[in-house]
Each structure stands twice: as structure tokens, then as C-alpha cells.
């Protein structure tokens, strides 16, 4: 209930057009109103686009293909953009039947259906350290592009051959915000952040073995970065990085 | 050596005003030139303000008062803003002698001397969950203010009494970027991020006991946030959060 | 041997109806008596219902289908309620042959056969944060229902969209005890506990990825809750939560 | 604003005794009203007693003596019971000046001033494993007593001499809820929970050395308890256990 | 080279029956002699039975069936007892062809061929906490029996029903050494050690879920045992426990 | 109540010398009888010597000097041997007043008063890896000697100079049981266990820095020992090792 | 651009043979020049052989067979030696088609094609503790041999039978650098480093179970080695050790 | 006993100049001879210089000043070089009395007395990332210099200002071996190793806060380095790095 509705209701009460019992009921009901659709196993949040600038997103992990497809159908029915992350083949098959014009990004493991989106103000530069970090990087890219951003991908520029990233200084300087994806020792964000004057979103990946501990080494490296401007998201959370970068790029 | 200097030099060579030996020496020397002052134990980075939009900052932790004061004097001599973080009483005494008009923020454990700074475009809202999180929150605030930002502090609004943060909806909505500081379970960033449409920088603190493990519980809570727009910095890293928020607020 | 039996025995000895050797033997044997059935690989505890208010429960994890079925048959032969948790398909097939009228709850991975049970005094409200937490939540629900409780399920009300849980205030207020199931950052129990005046049993789930570390992030979040009334059980331990909630609801 | 106030207001509007502008203002203001006192560094929650059955409690850890005393004075000014936990000597001295009739429990490290409280329905039995666990146990006892409960203390009954706890069967059976405090291997809650039919709140302590890891061994032992009815709070969190036990004892 | 051989050699040199070059060569060669058979990928230690009282044992984990079979054949060729632990079906098939009269213990995952062994002096009592701990317990039992010991198995006597282990006091008292196998919270060794006056070898198992962390909770519980006489071996190391118990039982 | 007392009582009942009410009372009381002295904050276990072959031992850690002295006095009053471990200077001063003929072992941080003890059957050999491991080694030695054992100390024989431990082969061979104390990488028990045919009790110490993690590296090294016969106690638990070694040496 | 090229260019400008625009362009382009081939998903580093003495190596882990084969083909096209580590069967099949004369080392999981290499100055001795450590040891051996070194393999000489490694003193003394591969407690490097005067590269392996934590126990053991000359690489990183040993052996 | 002594002895036996009893005794005694001095609490290893190329070094940590001084005196009495690491002020005072011409390096916390040493073949370059890493770096430098090496220090060249380390390319290229000391994210060794063709010894330091976990973040970063040639020593182990670098520099 917006302020105008409240004022109108009170005037109707004053004028006797609405009795107090009815007004009481409408006010009470307004407090109870749910800004979401309840599917039983899930409450689809239709106001999120208004509140946060982008629609509810489906994390495929731990949901059955049928659940993913049902939530996807509900979202699309409201004309929202659709994004399913961590979507495996069976989830894609289930969604495709409900949302025939959806698209599957196999490397990024994402399902999308692009609705309208406000274009971002600048370019998001996306760096990754190694070839194996690509799935996570692509999840970030697909997310950012769906939300209306231009993404410039700079892949395989890990710090062990420092000239590779140094040679990209021009493209980096053109960024309004940078996403850096890296596994193993996770040192790339520190180097990149020292080269630019814009925020760097660091994404540790689970790429590595032994004492990489599934991405913990990279995560710790990024949290302890001695460079300015580095903030960090969860291991392998390409979606989160894409989403934050888009928020910044739309400010 | 800027592009213009290079062009000028080449023209001088062509015109015979500079011989090749001399030009060779100048080019070689340009490659070698260090954009920092070497104090032996420290290399003060005088180009950082140009590269990154703010000056070199001194982390007081692990440096002797004499070292802190020497670096501070070097920075101030170039008319840069001064910021020393994690500065205890002895460091402050040592700096005060070298930089008499510096200021000490005891709660934030920071020493500052404000130079010129470009004003940020909007307001940085700074929330903290509990009274004990204040030192870290103030480090973020002092940093952001030194860098030219307006900071709106909302303190002691932890999630256990959810009405406290809900009652601040209006101030939160006015933010261009939000910093959320919380120890213990670190749940506040998730709730705040669900209420705003701008980036949230989450700062875990070491406040807590037992299974808080010096801030690890809060850190993990924030990294695993299911809300959009949350990125995380190191435990107790108020400075880092203030710095990133300022970068975003100047975009 | 109850007090009355002891007194009777002593009177028989005094009256010469039982000689001392026999009495000695009976007393000694009473000390040795086992309140359980020994199946070799398992000792089924038939007195647990008397001691603790509910029967022995079978944790399916790490037992062969044949072992599960044999223990189940032994329990049912004594007219006790049957509950097998973490029961996969093969365990269900094996039990079904021994206990034809048993029931399988596929989502909750539980096998039950309902015996008599004392009704709980109030309602157990069961909240879960996300769709993927449902299997654990259902394990709690099946357990509590088997033990005679009414369960009110409120699913998918994670803190990232705080209005979802706030809109359930009325149902929460009606609870005599609340179970909150959440993975990832595990912040929901803190918020719920701030809204009610009854005990909250928090169940972390292994849902999440990266730095959720198989439920550790949620576990730590819950242990560090700054809200009153939150106690915690093991990761994914829906059964334990259902059982404690039932105990409290029967007080 | 309660339901009755809302109904009265609407009737006044209908009858013309209050005009719509005024009514609009009062309704809007009701939504804005803060159920807490803002001290700047802290927001004292005066409605918590209504919402949760006991007053706001001050965690002394990480607060200055002056801050503790100011919050204490504010709480006492509203005639609420006062409880400060983790209060060291300086905090006690500061509070004593503001609240002269407060009491200091040195072993429990608590400051209290007892207001009115509803008596609990039964007895809370409080067991501890070793002499060194007493400070944590006493924090739980002081909390529970302040909240109106009778506490029966059974100390130094660790499992290494199992006859010690077995000899307390009668007192344990008389409990409506049991708190078990233990460090080192934390095995006592499992044994106690097997002897009673009521909920057991387990409190791991940081007592131990080497691989006890500051209470982690005890915490893990308790979370993995194979006994029914055990839920766990944070390491050394005597207050939390006392509070939950009181909630249960007042149902 | 034994002392007697050395003396004889020196006398031969003195008497001129052996020249110094020859003697020098024999002494040098004695220093170089290898008390093991080199299979290239493995050095089978044939002197271990002399040095340590039992033969070289094969840990099946991480070896190919062919490697296991080759080492087994080499051991059996010297008339030593054979023990392969962590032997899966393929290893058993490979060994059976090389050592036709070997025996497979499927539950214990061991292959044995019993040679001569000195009988132990007393009884080894072997307790386990739950049905799922049996494979590890059986590995201990098979090992101890192969080494000449009598083993008394007491299974499924976890501390949650403390009367189960208390009812076994007589059998426990008859032990010369006790092995206790337990997963989850690992509390059984503490209770058993409080009931006997002989050494207790505690074996944590990986049985459990969530915060059992693959046996870490049980391991920590056992290391922190406040009972006397408890020492601990690696998680799931039934073999190690059986071997130590046998050493003690042969003293 | 022993078996003979029970038989006598029953005969008295039969003969009418004791009436059934009296007999009933005596039997009931026997069940209730506590084999410990209750000091309020501690229950001193006077039957432990009978049950386990050595008296109750006081862990000084976390107890006040007054508590330590009171328990010590109680133990000595029953003519038991006294052992206080982790006893600092203030504890020693407090005990000395209550137990004037007690002895303080400063390096081992132990207080003892030697009562009667049965001599062990053989020698306990005690090896330590480095000079800094001595306090823990001495705690083991003092414990074992108090319990009637002969201890042969072999100190500073770490594996980095392998000839040092190899040169002690004769003394090692004379052991009935070996205790090995080592910090840092904790490799000494593996080497020693390969040289002897008797049980090895391994004690990790907290000596080291960096990735020794307060003894965790040594603990893990010992738990993973590939040598036969090694069992492990808690980090720095010299007392525990001395006690187990004594148990074995008295078999 | 080398120093000679720069000098030549400047002379051409002076002499008017090259105009300043052209010279400017060439200098600028020299700064931009990439010493790598960009395959889109990977940047193959063709200058690494010049910079570091050996060619770019492909870590097979996390790359698709097609990606591995494409990078391999690119490397071979430049006449560089080829090394793919962590190469499974499908990767081998894919590479074999692109590089027909490549070789597959199944045990070491490596693909190689040997180009020219400078012979190392001495011998690399490679020790492993157990049979199961062989795959990692072979990865080190294959790497070192490809880089021109002679490798002397000493396998299965774990410390539990210390005479096995002691008997290899002569071969160890002949080493210019030693690689020691060990899982479980990881004690072998300490012993070996005490026997030689050359650097020891320690490689922990993930061989073990329970508290070996996938190689962490071995890693910590090696990092805490009290012997001189031990440095450590990542768990299972045979390649890294081979590469470092070759660097040292070519000095 | 050397080969020549053995041959001489045998010839004397043959010639009757030494009888067999005497020869037997001498041979036996040679086996028993200890190549170390036993101070009771320490065995000073006088043959280490022969075996390993440098003398026994004293780790001051955990030793009393008196113990340090006694071992120092013993070492100096044999004309060996003296090195005490982790030496605090009291240790220095105690040593100074025994070894008047010793020298104290306060920043490096080392005591030295330089004996003869063979000069290393090249230069050891020593880089550190930050000012606070200096004490560890200096420990490495003092060690390497004592062992006869030339050390070129490059301090405060952390990766956040990548131009600082890039500007040192010439000095780095002149190294025969490089030591890199870094705390926080520990990224510097990866960058440096990509710039040189010689071995890099990486030393993580405990400098940092929060999620640096006392150097663990840096340690993991270094172990996971994707650059070739990096091996790692324990956190803060400057001595170890200096020692290995010296070994390599003397090959």
C-alpha cells in the first residue's frame, strides 16, 4: 500500500464512503500482502526487480529439474529476465520444455532468457588467470551481459608470466569495474588492482589440487590482498561477481 | 615518460638537437626511473595517487613508530593526504613530532592529515551490528571521509532485533553504496543487501568468542550470503571497505 | 528389579520360602539383566521408550539394507513406532519385505510405521531458508509428526528477502517451539529468534558451495547467533531437531 | 500501535473527531516509532522483554566500562532486570557507581540486579564435568536464576568416573530441562541425555589444552552426540544455555 | 654379521687362513647387506618378524591388485603369515591366484594366511560403539587373531544407552588390554577407560556426518579423553590397534 | 557392597538376625553410596586407586591455587600418592602449606608426594627429539617414577641427525615400553618404532613455530606413522603417556 | 626490442632514413608486443624457454582433451619439448592425433615429446617412501629426464624400516640434489636431509587415510622438518619438484 | 673409522702386532662412537659440518638463556661458526658472557660468531614484499652471509605496485638463487619466479591480520604458485631459506 492509497482510503472513511470495519480489514490485509508467489517449495520474489534492479535468479544447485523448470516458468510469466546458474543438462532439458525460447550456455552452465535491461554506463573488464578458470569467468560474463553490460574478456593472464597481464594495460584502463577470476594462489587480483583505479571484484575458483583446498588458498590470497580496491565473493561465485559489477556499472 | 615527451625527444633527434647517444641514455633511463622514494626499509609509492586516485596508505601493524613516522613525513612532504591505520599510541606520538598538524582518531586507531580530495557523488551508508564493532566501522568512516565522501553512520542494528535495521529503510535507500560491519554470525549484510539496490561491502570483525574463531564465522557468513550485491573484505579491514566504497562513490 | 520386587524377595527369604542361595542368584541376575535385544551386530534398546519417551531410531547411514531390515523387524515386533532415517531406496526395499505396512518418505529419506504417541501440547513451526533445504526440513517434520506433534511448515523464507519471513509473524507467534533449517550463511535462526519468545532449534544444512564447506559456514553462523533462544544440532540433522522439538512440545 | 488503537483511530476518523491529515500522520508515525533508546553507540531494546520474555542483556566483551555502565543505567531506568555477562572488575566498578544496588558474581563474571520475574515451572538441573568448567556453569546458573528459575547444581561428574554421574540419577530425573557444561572431550551430554527424557542443552567450554583447540573438540563431540535431545550452544556460552533453559522451563 | 661371526673371522685372519683383502671385503659387505627383498616397486622387509615380532603387512590402499599379489607371494614364500588390509575384491582375486589357501574377510576387508604365532598371554576385549563401526572393529580383530590373540567382541555399546556398556563390566574386567572403536562423538573410550585398569587403545572411525568431519570429531574426543590409559591411533586404523594390543598382550 | 557382604546379609535375614526393613535399607543405601568425597567444587575419587591401579591426579590447569591445595590435602589424607600436573609457582606455594613434605619438579611443572607403589616389571625408555621438548618429557618421567617405574631418559635424539638415535639401539632394546616425545615434524616415533618390538607411546609437543600450529603437525605425523606399535596421546600430555606406559609395564 | 635494435633505430632517425612518426610507431609497438600465442582460451608462452630454461608445460587438470591437444600442437609447432602433466587417457588420445610421435607415461600420467635439452651437471637422486607414492615420484622423474637430467630412483625406503634408507648412503652421497616423495607422516625428507649435504626437495603426497587429510599431514611434517636443506612443494606436485631439481642441477 | 684405518688394523692383526681380542674391541668401539657431545639436555653434533657443509645451529625458541649459552660455548670451543636464531635479549646477554666476541643482530634476532667459510659461487638475491617482513628477511640474510655468501637485498617490492619489482629486473637476473619473503597474500614469489631462470626459495611470514591466519594465507599462496621453480619453507623460517640458498650457491 503506497502513501497515496492510504490517504485516499482515509478520506473515504471520513466521507463515509467506506465504513471502519472495511477500512480496518483493508489496512490489515495490506500489512499481510506478500510480494511473492508461493509455489509451496519456493516463494518466487516478484518485487526483487523493483527493489534491487534485477530479477530473482535461480541457483540450480540442489534443486530438481522439475523445481527449476517450475520456478523458471513462473518468472518468465511475469515478463522478467530469466537466469538459472549451475544448471546441468537435465535442468536445461526440463526448462526448455517450459520456456522454449530460453538459451543454454554450456561452458557457463547457465540458462537465460533475456528481457529488457538498462545498459550499463561503461565496460566491465573480466580477467581470468588460467584456461581452467573459464567456466566461472563465463558465469560472470553471462550474468553481466544479461543485466545490460558490455563485457571485455581477457583470459589466461596469470601472474607467472607477468608480461601477459602487463600487455593488457590499455584494455584494463578502459574498465569502469574489473572482475578477476583466479584459482591456485589467487594472486592476479592484487596485480590488476595495482594497475587500475576502479573497483576490482575478485572471484576465487576451486581450480588447483593439493594445498589449494578447493579454492581456499585463492580465497585467502584475495582476502589478504595488499592492493587497494579488492573485494571478494565466494569460491566459484561467478554469478555474484557479475551481479555486483553490474550494480556498480549502473550507478 | 609520457607519450608527448617521447614524441618531442624523437623530433629533437631527427633535427640533430639531441644526439643518439644522449637520446639512448634518456630512453633507457626512463625505463629505469622509479616512481617511488626508497627509504631503505620502505619504498614510498608517489605515483599511487595518479594511478589509483588516492595516496599510499601506511598500515601501522608490524612497523616501528620510527618507521611509521619516517614514511608519514615522506608522504606529507609531497603534499599528499596522510592516512596511517592500526596506529597505536606510540606511533601517534612519533608521527605527531614529524607531522605536527596531523590528527589522531583514537577509536578508529587512525592518524590523518587531510589534503585535497574530490567529493564523492553520493552518500556512503555505514551500518554496524553491535557496539563492539565500532572501532572497525570508524576505521572505514575515517578512510572514506579522508577520501572526500559523506558518511551516514547507522550503528548497533544487528539482526537479532530485526526492527532496528528495518526502521532505517529510508536512510539505507539514500545510499550510493553501503558498508556493513558485523562480527559474530555476520548476518547483517544479507539482510541489508536485500533492502537496497546498491553494492554492499561487507566487513567481518573479530568480535565474538568461542566458535567465532576471531572473525571466521562472520567472514564465512558473508561469503555465503544469499543476497545479491555483497562482496567481502578481510576480517577487521575497515580501511579496505572505506577505500572501495570511495572508489565506487567517485565513479 | 523394582523396589516392590526387592521387598517381596527379602520377605520370602525371611520366611524361608526362598533360600539364600536362590535369592543371591536372583539379585545378582537382576544386576546383570540387559534391557536390550542383542542381534550380534546391534543391541536393540527396548527400554528407550520408557527412559526417553520415544523408541530407538535407526540411522540408515553406514548400515546394510539387511541390517536395517533386521533391526526394523525387531523394533516393530515390540509394537514400537518405527523410524529409519537416511534410508535410501535399497534400505526401503529390504524393510518393506519385513514390515509390509511401513511407509517411505522419499524426500525426507525416512521409513516410518506409526505406533501410538502422546499428542504434543502446541504447534511446532518449521521454517526453511531455501528450496534445497527441504530434505532436511522434511526429516525434521516426519520425525516430529511420528512423535505426535502438529507441524506448521514455512518454507523458502531466507533472509535475503526479509519481507518473506516478516510476513509470517502470525504463524511464528503461534509456535510453542520453532525449528529453523538453513544452509549457506545460516542467518535465518537469528532473525526468527528475534521475532518469537520460544526456543529455536537451528539446523545447519550442507547446502551451498565453496566457502560453505559442507555446512560449516551455516553451523558457525548459528552457534554465534546474537539472538536469544537459539541452540544448534549437527549439520543436516533434521531428525535430532524434530526429536528435541517434540520433547519440548511434550513438557 | 496495537490493534485496539488502530480500530479506535479509524472510528474517530469516521466520526469526524480526527481529521484525515492528523490520522495519516499518526499512522505514519506509528510505523516509524522505534522500540529502542538510541545512545549513539548502542540502541537499547526496551521492547525485548515484551517480545521475548526477558530483558536486553549486555555482553561485556569488547565494550568499555563506561559503555557498559551507560547501557546498564538505561536498562535499570526502565525497571528491567539487569544482566551483564563477561564483566571484568573495571566494568563492575563502573556499573556499581551507576547502579548502586547491583550485585557482582565474580566466579560467573556477571553483574545482576534482579527485577520481577515469573517463576519457572520446574527445576533446571545443571551438570558440569570438571572443576575448571565452573565459571561457565555459574554464568548459566546466574542467568537462569535471574530469570526466575530454580537451579540444581551437580558439579564435577565427568565421564571418566562414570559412577559419579550415575549416582545422580534421582536428581537428574527431577529435571524439566538439563544444562550440561563440559570441556576436553565433551562426552558428558551424551551420557546424561541417555539417562533423562527431557531436553539437554550442551555447553562446550574452552577448558583443555593441545588438541582441545579452545573448546572445538568439546563442541564437535556435542554436535555429534548419538543421544537424543542434545542441542548445543557456542563455546563458553553459559548465558545462552541459561536463557534457553529458562524459556523451556516457562513453557 | 653377528658378534660370533666377527670373532671367528678375526681369528681366521690371525691364523692366516683368510687374507686381509678377503676379510676387508667380507666386513665391508656385511655393512652393505640388505635385510629386505627388492621387487623394484617395493622392498619386502624379511627381518621385520625378527625385529618386531610380526611380519611385514601389506596396506592395500593405493596399490594395484598385481602389486598386492606380488608382495603377498614374496611374503608367503618365506613362510611368514600374510596380512593384507584395505583389500578390495580385485585385490582378493589377484592374491587368491598367487596364494590359493589364503582367506578373505569381506567385512574387515582383509586377506590372511595364518602362519605360526605365539599365543598372547590374556584376552583382548574389543568394544565398538555402533553397528556401522564393525568393519574397522573387525580389521582390528582379524589382525589380533592372526597374531595369536584371543579376542572378545562387545559390539554396539555406545554411550547414549550407558547401561549397555555398564552391563559388560565382567567381560571388560577380564581384559589384559582393551580396544575401543567409535565414530561420531567418540566418547566410549573415556567411559570404558574409567571402568578398567588396563591400557585402552582408542580407534576413531569415519562413521558420522556433518560436523563429524570424517572422523575428526571422534579423534579429537579421544585425544582429549580425561580418563587414564587411553592412547589413540589414526581414524579407521583397526590394523594398528590390533597390532599394538597384540604387542601389549605378548609382553 | 562386595559379594561376600551381600551373601552375609542374606544369611542374617534368613536367620532372623536382621529384619527385612533393615536389610532393604542397607541394600538400597549400598546402591546409593558414593565412592568419592564431595568438596563442592570437586568430587575426589577415592576408589580410583582400586579400580585403576593409581590414585586420582590433579590437573592444575584452570584451577585456583586454593582449589588445588584443598584437593591435594584431601588426597593425602587418605594416604594416597599425590600428583599435581601443570602446577605453576602459586599452586606449589599453596600446596606446600597443606602438604609440607610434598616435592616440586620445576621443569616438569609437577608436585608429588610419593606413597607406596608396586614396581614395574621392566624399564620404560623415554626419548625426546629436542632440548625444548624436555618439560613434557619430564612430566612423563615424574609420572612414571611416581607409579613405581624405572625410567631411562634418552634426550635430544631428533631424526635430523639419525646417527644419534641409532647409537642408542642397545638402550632401546632393553625397554619394555617406549615413550617418544617430539615437536615440529614429530618423526621420531616412526623411526624408534621401527627399531624395537615393544609398544611406543608417542607424545606430540607444542614446540615449533609457523606451520607447526601448536603441535598439530607433530600430532598428525604421529597419527599417520607407518611404523607398527605407535599410539598417540594429546599434545603436551606427558602425564598421560607416563600413566599408560606404567599400566603396560605393570601387566 | 633489444638494446641493439633500439640503437640502430635511433641512428636511422638521426640520419633521416626513418621519420619520427614511423619510429614512434615502432617503439610503441615494441612495448605492446606479446611474447605469446593467443588461442582464445589460452595464451601459449613461447618466450618461457628463453626466460626460464624450459618450455611452457601443460597442466592437464581441468582442461578438456581438445584444449590440451590444441595447446600441445601449438607448442610442438615451435620445436619446443612437450610435457603434459595430469594427463588422463582421453587427453592422451586427443594429443596422440595431433602429435603422433608423443609418448605416454601411464604411471606418471604424463605425455612427452622430447626436444633438445642441455644435460644436467650431476645426478638427481629420487627417493620415495612407499609403493603407493610411485605415480608422484614418476611425474618428477619424467619431468627431470625430459629436461636433460640423469635420475637415480630409490623407491620404498620409508622410515619405519630405517635400515632401508641407511643402506642407500652411497647412492645418496652421489647426488647433486635430492627429491624425496612421501605420504602419510612425511618423515623421510628429514632423515635423508640429515644424511646429505645437498638441497632436498620434499614432495608430500596425498597417500594415506584418516588424519592424513589428503596429504596435509605429510606437508606439515615436511614444512616443520628440523633438518637443514629441506624445501617443499605442493601436495602431489611431482612436476614442480622435477623442475626445481633440474634448475639446481643446471647451475 | 675410515676405510684406511680398517685396512691398517686388519694388517696388524695378520702380522700379529695386534691380537684378535684387542682388534675386536676396537672395531666394536668404533661402531659405538658418538659423533656428538652430550650436555645432558642437548647432544651437540660436531660432525654436522663435515656431513652437511655447515655447523650445528641453535634455535633459541623454547630454550633457556643458560641452555643457549652452554651450547654456544661448546660449539665455539670446536672453532665452528656460531649461529643462534630466534635469540631474544636475555639469550644474547647470556651468550655474550660465554662468547665475548659474538655479535648480535637485533632486527634479525640472531647471534653470530663468524668462523671460516667457503665463498658461494654467485649472488643470492633476497626480495621482501613489505617493511614488516624485514626481520624474517634479515634472518635469511645473516644466515647466508655467515655461510660465505654475497646477499643483494631488494626490500618492499610487493605486487600491489608491480612496477617496483619490475624495476629490479637487472638485479634479479644477476642472481644464482633468489629468496622471496612475503606475508599477507604471498604473491611475490610467483611474480619473481616468472622473471628469473633460477630456483626461488619462498618464505611466508606471519605478517598480516584476520584471514592471514598467522601466515597460512601466504604459505598456501606460495605452495600453489603456478610459476616454475618455487619451493617453500616454514612460516617465518628465514634461517631455513638462507641455508638452502647457500647450499645451492655452493654447488
Plain-language structure description:
- 8 copies of one chain form a homooctamer.
- With 251 residues, chain A is of the alpha/beta class.
- Chain A is built from 11 helices and 11 strands.
- Chain A has helices at residues 3-14, 20-32, 48-52, 65-77, 89-98, 134-146, 162-166, 169-173, 188-193, 216-223, 238-250, and strands at 36-38, 43-45, 58-59, 82-85, 103-105, 110-113, 123-128, 150-154, 175-182, 200-204, 230-232.
- In chain A, the strands form 3 sheets. A 5-stranded parallel sheet of chain A has the order 8-7-9-10-11. Chain A has a 4-stranded mixed sheet with strand order 3-4-6-5, with helices on both faces.
- In chain A, helix 10 (216-223) links the parallel strand 10 (200-204) and strand 11.
- The longest helix of chain A is centred in the first third of the chain and has 13 residues, at 20-32.
- The model of chain A has no long low-confidence stretch (mean pLDDT 87).
- How many H/I helices of chain A? 11
Strand content of chain A: 15-25%
> What distance separates the N and C termini of chain A?
28 Å
Measured by residues with Cβ under 8 Å of the partner chain's Cβ, the largest interface is: A-H, 34 and 34 residues
Amino acid at each position: 500500500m503506497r502513501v497515496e492509497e492510504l490517504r485516499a482510503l482515509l478520506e473515504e472513511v471520513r466521507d463515509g464512503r467506506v465504513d471502519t470495519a472495511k477500512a480496518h480489514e483493508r489496512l490489515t490485509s495490506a500489512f499481510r500482502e506478500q510480494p511473492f508467489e508461493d509455489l509451496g517449495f519456493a516463494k518466487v520474489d516478484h518485487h526483487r526487480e523493483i527493489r534491487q534492479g534485477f530479477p530473482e535468479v535461480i541457483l540450480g544447485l540442489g534443486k530438481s529439474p522439475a523445481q527449476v523448470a517450475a520456478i523458471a516458468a513462473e518468472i518468465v510469466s511475469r515478463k522478467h529476465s530469466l537466469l538459472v546458474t549451475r544448471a546441468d543438462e537435465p535442468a536445461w532439458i526440463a526448462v526448455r520444455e517450459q520456456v522454449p525460447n530460453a538459451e543454454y550456455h554450456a561452458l557457463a552452465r547457465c540458462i537465460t532468457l533475456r528481457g529488457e535491461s538498462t545498459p550499463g554506463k561503461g565496460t566491465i573488464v573480466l580477467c581470468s588467470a588460467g584456461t581452467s578458470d573459464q567456466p566461472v569467468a563465463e558465469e560472470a560474463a553471462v550474468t553481466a551481459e544479461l543485466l545490460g553490460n558490455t563485457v571485455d574478456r581477457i583470459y589466461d593472464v596469470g601472474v607467472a608470466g607477468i608480461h601477459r597481464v602487463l600487455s593488457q594495460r590499455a584494455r584494463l584502463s578502459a574498465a569502469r569495474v574489473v572482475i578477476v577470476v583466479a584459482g591456485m594462489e589467487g594472486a592476479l587480483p592484487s596485480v590488476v588492482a595495482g594497475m587500475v583505479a576502479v573497483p576490482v571484484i575478485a572471484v576465487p575458483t576451486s581450480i588447483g589440487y593439493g594445498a589449494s583446498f578447493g579454492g581456499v588458498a585463492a580465497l585467502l590470497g584475495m582476502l589478504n590482498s595488499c592492493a587497494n580496491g579488492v573485494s571478494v565473493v565466494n569460491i566459484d561465485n561467478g554469478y555474484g561477481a557479475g551481479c555486483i559489477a553490474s550494480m556498480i556499472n549502473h550507478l
